[in-house]
Design goal:
alpha/beta; Rossmann fold; 7 helices
């Protein structure tokens, strides 16, 4: 069975707006990992919240059409998971420092993800799911 990867918001934003040069290797590895999902090496997932967040930020930096076109392509590659009342309740009660990360985490838990892919591992200190940056995940996979 293919590994199920949950991509959190910072990864999708890094890819969509090609964040600054300091993140160049991480962005390239994120793109590489998403391309592997597209090639059906892994199963990729994200949440409805990430779509709205990405649109909002990308539209401010670029424009509506660019944002919509990026999200259309992304939707063909990643499965979009719903965020429901149960997930919101768990996130509200979780004690996570960042509510948005708590929502992402409980979306991943509810949908039985194998890994969370993020740039900010520290945001997921309470995770029972393995959490990696794209670079870390790719290195681990190369070692197998």
């Amino acid at each position: 069975m293919k590994e199920k990867l949950f991509f959190d918001n910072d990864i999708i934003l890094d890819v969509s707006i090609r964040r600054d040069e300091l993140l160049k290797n991480d962005v390239n590895d994120a793109i590489k990992l998403i391309n592997l999902v597209e090639a059906d090496e892994y199963k990729g997932y994200t949440s409805t919240v990430i779509f709205t967040n990405t649109y909002y930020i990308q539209k401010k930096l670029k424009d509506h059409n660019t944002s919509i076109n990026f999200l259309k392509k992304l939707r063909l590659i990643l499965t979009v998971l719903n965020v429901d009342d149960k997930i919101i309740q768990k996130a509200l009660e979780s004690g996570f420092n960042d509510f948005e990360d708590a929502v992402q985490y409980f979306t991943a838990v509810e949908n039985k993800m194998d890994y969370i892919i993020t740039r900010n591992i520290e945001d997921y200190k309470k995770s029972t799911i393995k959490v990696y940056t794209p670079s870390q995940y790719l290195k681990i996979k190369e070692m197998r």
